[in-house]
Fold these 2 entries.
Entry 1:
Amino acid sequence: MAYDTILVETSGKVGVITLNRPKALNALSSGLIRDLGAALDAFEANPDVRVIVLTGSEKAFAAGADIKEMAGKSYMDAYLEDFITLGWERVTKCRKPVIAAVAGFALGGGCELAMMCDMIIAADNAKFGQPEINLGTMPGAGGTQRLTRFVGKSKAMDMCLTGRMMDADEAWKCGLVSRIVPLDDLRDEVMKIAETIADKSLPIAMMVKEAVNTAYETTLAQGIHYERRVFHATFATDDQKEGMTAFIEKRQPSFTDR
Ligand code: HXC
């Protein structure tokens, strides 16, 4: 299917969504969010796609929600349409692993969108920020909550109150991104990571993802309890038998997603 604001392709077992509004630095218009949701629905339903990569251009992952679209909204517009709730949270509902490959600007809603993914791989030119305060507003797609959980209160306050940007190195040091790679290698490196994950058992990868995400929603004791139960459940799978047998037989496992 063709979209106006994104490009969609599959490469082996990996589905790639590229945000594509270059003239607006991939500002996240309502049309783009709709397209993104439809593309994610399609990849989630496609059994050949095992991992999803979300990326932008070399200059911008996304420079935020579309300010030109948003500027004239009234309070009632925002309230009645529940502005940004519908569609925006779609990426957080994905059951397959989603990797954000971020080059250039990831600002405002762009930073929030990247944080909704399961991990962020940054190019060395990446810049992250929550500059909404400069526009007389504030993060509205989870920035005050997810950034705080990623980097802690002091740095989240610093970012959200000053509106400054942090570079890739700072983002890596504070745990916002898992790896930094040279800009020219971003696509290849992210595809390697995605393919590594795609070669695992998909249901086990989905269980791991759910368990890690549960860490953000529960107390430690509840999270450990949840992890223990899901860990037990892996012993009901063929893939656990295959994985451990392959190790003992000194060969690569051949997972069947069962
Ligand atoms: C609409 C945007 C945009 C945005 C850039 N553009 N960001 N349009 N919404 N968020 C457009 C510019 O208007 C311009 O269009 C073109 O993209 C290129 O941008 P420039 O500013 O000329 O580029 P540059 O000088 O390189 O500066 C890059 C930049 C700057 C530092 C990223 O564009 C910038 O500050 N953008 C806004 C960042 C921001 O405040 N994001 C938060 C948005 S609020 P024209 O037509 O003039 O060429 C938000 C709220 C989230 O995200 C809450 C819920 C989702």
Note: The chain has a mean pLDDT of 97.
Entry 2:
Amino acid sequence: MTTLFNPLLNGFHPDPSVVRVGDDWFLATSTFEYLPGIPIHRSSDFENWELIGHVATREGQLAVADVPTAGGAWAPTLRHRDGVFHLVITDAMGRGMLHFTATDAAGPWSDGDLILRQDGTGSVDGIDPDIAWGEDDTVYITFSGLLLSGEGVGQHLGIQQVRVDLDRHIALEEPRSLWSGTGGQFPEAPHLYPVDGRWYLMIAEGGTERGHGISIARGDSPEGPFETAPQNPLVSARSTIRPVQNTGHGDLVIGPDGTWLCVLLGVRPRSMTRAFSALGRETFVTAVRWEDDGWPAIDPVLLHARPGTRVDIDFSTVRELDREWIAVRQTPGSIADLDARADALVLHGDGRTLDDPRPVFLGRRQEHLTNAVTVAVDVSAGVGGLAVRYDERFHVEIEAGGGAVVARAVVADLVQEWTAPVASDVLELHIESRPPHAGGGFPRTSDVFHLAVTADGVRQELAQIDGRFLSSETAESFTGRVIGAYAVTGDIVVTRWTAEGDDE
Ligand code: 6LW
């Protein structure tokens, strides 16, 4: 197992759920307010994962257009039965608890049906739904009972369960309470597993930050009662100096060599002292062993960084966007114009800035701790640039147009700018994330952004900005850094995108 790369999925891919179908494994993760929503990755060896599609690619499948920041697609469960993939998820502060199906994991997926209350009204209130079939084909939805409202998270009701009629999408009973962990806050992420004649209920508790952990209980019925494992938590990095922190929110599967694996979320703070997690919550894997007493033991998560990557996109040769592009509360196709010019991507600004909930921003997840992105642009007909976005209140950008270049840091209500004149409209804009260098005046607990522009072959660095400001801990966001090109006014012509990074 130690040969597996960790993270399995770099960049913000929280709340992983995994299913094995034949000789392939499929992973689904959360995407919150971004579209397309709920990526599906496939692997045949658990090492190399291919993004094969998304569950939510069409308007209406998720109601994220007006969802509050970090609402939207929360915590899928992906399962497969009788030739059909099933995915249940909560469109938080959006449509509610949904059930999607597909015969091909790459899609197309169904429109998504609400799991309704007994009387057919409203959805069953909760997050982190799991779907499981009992011996008599009874369908169970087990979830973290939570009263969500338009403003956000309400009262936690613990782990609950309803039997459902999956054809009519009706709950056959009012939610029943199950085992809710060992007393940690926010019992959530429940998953039910039938193993050797027993039913195991695995949950996350402690909250998705440094106190996060995984606990398990077992019983003779999927409806309980459940007895807690003597060695809970099975997984937690709390109060340790392990390089992968916040570990929790797991899902179990039998891996390629026939042993059990646990996929789970974690963060990679740059250093261990009060460190900051730039990339958000990523998907990791670790080994599971079943002990003689019938309880599982789960190994601590070991880092095994993937080799660095380089992406080089020349838009004179690209006529469609690849699957890694994402946009905020709208589809990439609704803002990216590949038809206006044969040699470039055009972003049409309409006055919306990065402070808006739906900016004209086309992004990709930052996947490496050390990272450099360059975008070649022509700003003769507009104002826009290159940005690292956590959300509309936390972003860093280098913006050009009208004969000037501005480096800008927006941190909650604080804004700082550095401006320089530039004699050309054909520019290269650069944002690099690098470790702090000795004597640079920046703390070792995060990285440093370097913002620069190249005009007429001359590169000029405008600003260095503390990377702590764009981290999970500061932004308190469920997502992670997304780097993208954007337009504010007029047309921004993007001719080339290059990104390279590694985890050294
Ligand atoms: C997810 C839940 C959680 O549904 O955050 O903090 C939500 N815990 O497990 C989004 O990741």
Note: Residues 14-15, 30, 74-75, 127-128, 188-189, 204, 207-208, 249, 478 surround (Z)-L-Arabinonhydroximo-1,4-lactone (CB under 6 Å).
